[in-house]
Amino acid sequence: MSFTIGFRKVKHEDIDFLLELRKKSMTKHLAKAKIKQTNEQHLERIKEHYYQSHIILRDRKPIGVIKFGVTALNGTTKSLHIRQLQILPKYQGKGIGSKVLSVVKKKALQLQLPITLNVLLKNPARGLYLRHGFQIEGKNKIEFQMRCPLEVIAA
Question: How confident is the model over 8-20, as pLDDT tens digits?
Answer without folding.
Answer: 999 999 999 999 9
